[in-house]
Structures are given as C-alpha cells and as structure tokens.
Design a protein that fits this description.
By secondary structure, the protein is of the alpha+beta class. It has helices at 2-14, 110-115, 167-181, 222-237, 256-275, 316-327, 354-363, 374-384, 390-398, and strands spanning 32-43, 47-48, 51-52, 58-60, 65-70, 75-81, 87-94, 98-106, 121-125, 133-135, 139-143, 148-155, 158-160, 163-165, 194-201, 206-208, 211-215, 281-285, 292-299, 419-420, 433-434, 450-457, 462-468, 482-487, 493-497, 507-512, 517-525, 534-542. Among the domains are: 2-239, no CATH class; 415-542, Sandwich (Jelly Rolls).
C-alpha cells in the first residue's frame, strides 16, 4: 500500500488533482475585468493494429473546464472552457490591483453541459473520486485590467506501476463519444446529467450503469476506453441485460445477453474511432512499451484475425461486426483491411439514414425488450420500418452466419404440415433447418419456431432422434437450443428431451414403437433467450 501511495504521489506531481475546496465559486460584486487566454494540450500515444507506433503526438484538450484563481487567496476569479483547439479565453474579475494568476484545466465538461443541454457532464476521476486537473505556469503580480496570454501547456504522460496513461486522453475520448451520440446524425438528448470514468482501476476495465473504470494499463488504449464508454451509453440510452462475467474473443457459445452487450460496446468504440478518422479496430496494447505490444486486436470490417471462427449470435466478435456494419460510414472508413459496408451509401429508410434508423431502434423497441440480444435488433428493425432494406439487412447478418429468416421447409409449424422423412433419409443428418418463423408476412419480426416432422414406423421398431449444431461443429456457431418431443399416431406424447445431446442439443434414444402408423416429432426451443438458430436433425430406425 505504501508503494502504491508513492506511485500516486509521483503521478500527482505531473497532474494536479483538484480538491473540492479549491473549486469554490467566485464571489459576486464589482471589480475590474480582463481576459486570460492560452491553450491546453496533452501528450498522446499513437497506435495501429500492431500496437504503439512510437510516436507521441500532442493533441488539444477540448471542451474542458478552465478555472482561473487568485493563487494567494485561493479564490476563483474566472471560469470558462477550452474550445475545439484546446484554446481558451476566460473573462476574469477582481477588486485587487495586482493578482497572482493560476490557471488550471480539469478533465470535466461541466461548463459545456450547462451551455449544451444535450451534452452530459463528463468527469475523469482518481480512485478517490477527485477530478483530474493540470496547471499552466503561474503568473505572479499580474496588473489587473490587462489581458494576458499564459501560453500553451502540455499535460505529459503519467506512469503508474511502469504503465503509461493520461486522464486527458480518457477525457478526450469521452468527449468524442458523446459528440457522436448528441450529434444531428444520431440526435439523442441527455438522459443522465453526469457520466464518471475512473482511472486508474486496479480491478481491470469495466462499467456499471453510468460509471466506467479504466485499468492501470489501459490509459492509452483508445478502443478499450471507448468500449467501456460504450457500455455506459448502452446502459443509459438503450438497454443492456448483460449479465457480465468472463468472456473472451473466440468464444461462440456465450450467453446471448453477454455477447450482445459486449459486441455492442465494441461496435460503438469502432464507430467513434471511425468518426475520428482512426482505424475501426479493437486493440489492447501493453501500457509499458513504446513500440508494438498489441496483446489483442480485432478489425471490425473483416473480423480479422478471427474471421473464420467468429460466427453466430453467441459470439461477441460476430455481434460487434454486424452492429458495426449497420452503423458504419464508408466515407469515414480508415480501416486497414477490407471494407464491407453493406448498409451505407445513399440508403434511405423511411426518410432516415441507416444511422438514424438504427439509433431509433436501439433507443425505442430495444430499450423495452426483455433479455435483449442481437435477435431483437433484427426483429425491432423489421417491426419499425415499412421499407426495411431487407436484402441489405440479410447480407449483414448472413456474413456472420446469423440467419433470422425462415428455411425452405416452411410452413411446417403444425402436425398437419409435418415434413416427411422417407426411408432414404433415415440415418443421415438433414440439411440446416432454422428455428425462425415470420408467419405470412414478407417482412416482419420473427417468433420462436416449431418444426414438425413425420416418419412411418412399424410396431416393434425403435426410433432414435437427435439434433446437432450445423455441420457437426463442436463450437456453437448457432444460438439454437433444440427441444424434441415425439408423438404416436394418435397424437399422444411419448417422449421428450431438452439437453441430453451434445451441449445444448436434444437426444431421444431408442423409443420402441407400440403401434404402426405415422409418428411425428417437433423441434422447437423452450429457451426464452435462444429462440432462433440453425440445427441439423437425424432420425435412425432399427428393426421391423
């Protein structure tokens, strides 16, 4: 603990951490006015998909609170904020003839949130919940009434436990994120007055509600920071039923709520980076190196290097790539790999751009959905719009093996419509079937499907029925959770099963036919979240 305190003290030597008492409001009354101007910037770390490039550009600290104090008395004599270039000009007032000026910038957007009622108050804080601030060089004995320029001040990197970070990088990314959310392109109004981000977090990077924590080594990992901000946006403006818990790239059998929540946050990070003319990638680099050091990276255009295995609604990469394509702008793309923007261009959805249309889906029907997952994105889109751009929508989802449309055997939703399994098909796995039904509608949200099958049996024969993931893959590239129920020729339930097969698959082993005739079975899902998905079925008959 003592070592940690020493590290924090060393960090505070570069970054002044303002205490609440130092932010007391300035007194009212007459006084001589003058302008204090200058510029604040921060030292960044440039990156690409291989990690750090070794360059340390200096970027403006944009739209952050600026406070001018009478240093000798600790009194605030002026407040303002930086502009898009990090520059500021603050009107100050005091009754003194001379004043020792002390100018600070805070990683906070309180002033902007008062001017722009759609923009939230963003705060980047220490673990003790004090807002980060930095000082310009003090100006002692300044004659009141004369304007003064304090010049440009750069907030340098901080090093904690050998890992570099900068709270003003975290702040700038938050500003970019909420400029996108509140832009005319998206047009959301403020739903929370304050959003808080803590750095460094000694428990890793994570988010809860409208608060996020950025790990010690992630202070310059832009996509990781934006991912956590994406969780906050998701929680506040839409709905996330993300249960949390362990997750990793390459897992295609996640809880659908988890894969959607994590995929949504990663897609959001990519969209914001795209708008910043940066690569739309998720890159997690080692914070202790100057060159390279990428521990994990993902290209959101192509899913590389996970493009072969990341499929299905239970895979957070697949979900992220789908959502990114639904919101991406081809004219802003700065990606290193291929561009597959299938929902962009001169597309109009009921008079809206795809971006506007999708945000209306996210903040409308998806905000009200239970167990929200990527299924609801498809259903809500078809529910909302008369001109859904259906073929483009299919292209986006099909690219990651998410098939939310009825298969070639529909309608097979009732015993009377059962698909007949002939002698030549016995013992072989069927082609892919899909648990999805749109009823009679050409375009419309789906429902949990029931696929009925019929097979002729003679008394004494045994029948075995089983399901599997498509092509027998060991990883669940599909979200299907098949349930089997077998009925005799009189419609009586003889046997049923949910999960006796491999993982989520069903298995009915060796049921003896008590009478001859047409036996029927149904494949459906009883899982409230895994309603859809693809599966294969195999029927084996012995004896007779």
């Amino acid at each position: 603990m003592r070592g940690l305190l020493c590290q924090l003290i060393a960090m505070a030597a570069v970054l002044y951490v303002a205490s609440p008492s130092a932010l007391a409001a300035s007194g009212k009354g007459g006084g001589t006015t003058f302008l204090v101007s200058g510029q604040f910037e921060y030292e960044d770390k440039a990156w690409d998909f291989e990690g750090w490039t070794g360059e340390d550009p200096r970027l403006p600290i944009r739209f952050a609170d600026v406070i001018v104090r009478d240093e000798a008395r600790g009194k605030v004599i002026g407040r303002g904020m930086t502009d898009n270039f990090g520059e500021f000009s603050v009107e100050c007032s005091t009754k003194l003839q001379f004043v020792d000026l002390l100018v600070s910038v805070s990683a906070e957007s309180r002033t902007r949130s008062k001017i722009d009622k759609t923009f939230p108050r963003l705060r980047v804080e220490t673990p003790l919940r004090t807002v980060y601030s930095a000082f310009a060089p003090s100006v002692p004995g300044h004659p009141v009434g004369q304007d003064v320029d304090v010049g440009a001040t750069t907030v340098l990197k901080s090093v904690l436990y050998g890992k570099e970070g900068n709270p003003f990088n975290v702040f700038d990314l938050a500003v970019n994120a909420f400029e996108y959310v509140t832009s005319p392109e998206v047009g959301l109004s403020r739903r929370s007055r304050s959003m808080r981000i803590t750095w460094p977090s000694f428990m890793g990077s994570f988010s809860i509600g409208r608060r996020a924590w950025v790990a010690t080594g992630d202070g310059y990992d832009d996509s990781v920071i934006l991912h956590e901000i994406g969780h906050m946006v998701h929680n506040v403006y839409s709905d996330s039923d993300n249960p949390g818990g362990p997750h990793f790239f390459g897992d295609s059998d996640q809880d659908l709520r988890l894969s959607f929540g994590e995929g949504w946050a990663t897609a959001f990070a990519g969209i914001v980076l795209d708008r910043m003319n940066m690569p739309a990638m998720y890159v997690d680099s080692k914070g202790s190196v100057q060159m390279g050091g990428a521990q994990l990276y993902l290209d959101l255009e192509s899913a590389a290097p996970f493009d072969e295995e990341s499929i299905g609604a239970g895979d957070e990469i697949a979900v992220a790539c789908v959502l990114y394509d639904l919101l991406d702008h081809d004219d802003l793309s700065a990606d290193s790999f291929t561009d597959d923007d299938t929902m962009v261009g001169n597309v109009s959805v009921d008079g809206r751009s795809p971006t506007q249309a999708w945000w209306e889906v996210f903040t409308g029907p998806m905000r009200r959905a239970r167990h929200v997952n990527v299924n609801h994105a498809w259903d809500a889109w078809l529910q909302e719009y008369e001109q859904p751009e259906y073929s483009r929508l299919v292209d986006v989802f099909e690219d990651r093996d998410m098939e939310f449309w009825k298969d070639a055997w529909e309608p097979d939703d009732t015993p009377a419509e059962a698909v007949s399994i002939g002698p030549a098909e016995l013992g072989d796995w069927s082609p892919d079937h899909t648990l999805y039904s749109q009823g009679e509608a050409q375009f419309g949200p789906g429902t949990g499907d029931r696929d009925w099958y019929a097979v002729e049996l003679q008394v004494g024969q045994s029948i075995q029925i089983e399901t599997r993931y498509p092509a027998g893959t060991s990883d669940a590239g599909t979200q299907a959770d098949p349930f089997l129920a077998l009925y005799d020729p009189n419609g009586r339930l003889v046997a049923k099963d949910d999960d006796s097969g491999y993982r989520r698959n069903a298995l009915l082993p060796e049921v003896i036919a008590g009478e001859s005739g047409t036996w029927r079975f149904v494949v459906k899902s009883k899982n409230k979240r895994n309603r859809y998905g693809r599966y294969n079925v195999r029927v084996s008959v012995q004896g007779g």
